[in-house]
Amino acid sequence: MPLFLRFSALVLILGQALLITSCAAPGQTRDEQRQHIQQTERQVLDELYRLKPDLRSDLARAPGYAVFSNVNVNLLFASASTGYGVAVGKSGERTYMKMGEVGVGLGLGVKDFRALFVFDSPEVMNRFVEHGWSFGGHADAAAKAQDKGVAVGGEVVADGMRVYQLTESGIALQATLKGTKYWKDGELNFD
After folding, report:
1. What's the chain look like in SS3?
2. What is the Cα–Cα distance from 42 to 45, expressed in whole angstroms?
3. How far apart are CA 187 and CA 37, in angstroms?
4. Does pLDDT of 140 surpass 70?
5. How far apart are CA 133 and CA 138, in angstroms?
6. What is the mean pLDDT of residues 97-104?
7. Which of 31, 37, 50, 140 is most deeply packed, by most CB within 10 A?
8. Residues 40, 43, 49, CA angle at the centre, nearest 5°?
9. 144-169 tens-digit pLDDT
10. Count of Cβ atoms closer than 10 Å to residue 174 Cβ
11. 6, exposed or middle or buried, with CB in 10 Å at 0-12, 13-18, 19+?
């Protein structure tokens, strides 16, 4: 096996172990973590409503949505991300979730971003909450620090959902093949 493939496999295994153990929301207690996630949700929705006012009515008609906060680190041939979020159904039921992502490809940088998933049907939302898994190629460029810089993001339509991404801070240039896993947060969904 070539050295590059061995290195990539090792990075993916280490990245996966890191992601599974480190993607909890900030806070000492479950209530503090839930509050942080809800605050992030409000901030993301407010910012997207400001940038895309018609999104408010689209979201009101949708059977549900999910908001995630994610930090991505890309070092040359490997990338890893951790994150957390919440899926919210039409009747207001909340499912707290985690996410992890590992990838291989060229890139360099750190990026902190938020994502909104708007589901087109209850079945798509249920599939995301119960089996949330995404895999695919990814290429982007982002440069933003605090209120300065440029954030490249937008709307992507895929598999019965629309995805909006906001870059909060960071500098990244990457073209990677990534596997992303979304799953229920076993600690935050139960009291």
Report:
1. CCHHHHHHHHHHHHHHHHHHHCCCCCCCCHHHHHHHHHHHHHHHHHHHHHHCCCHHHHHHHCCEEEEEEEEEEEEEEEEEEEEEEEEEECCCCEEEEEEEEEEEEEEEEEEEEEEEEEECCHHHHHHHHHHCEEEEEEEEEEEEECCEEECCCCEEEECCEEEEEEEEEEEEEEEEEEEEEEEECCCCCCC
2. 5
3. 14
4. no
5. 15
6. 80
7. 37
8. 140
9. 444 443 343 555 656 788 888 887 55
10. 20
11. exposed
Token duo for residue 185: 């947060």
CA distance linking residue 132 with residue 125, whole number of Å: 9
CA 134 remoteness from chain centre: 11
125: confidence class by pLDDT, cuts 50, 70, 90: very high
Structure-model confidence comparison of residues 183 and 73, the more confident one: 183
pLDDT, tens only, 33-45: 999 999 999 999 9
In single-letter form, the type of residue at position 112 comes to D
C-alpha closest to that of 189 among 22, 23, 24, 30: 30
- The whole-model pTM stands at 0.72
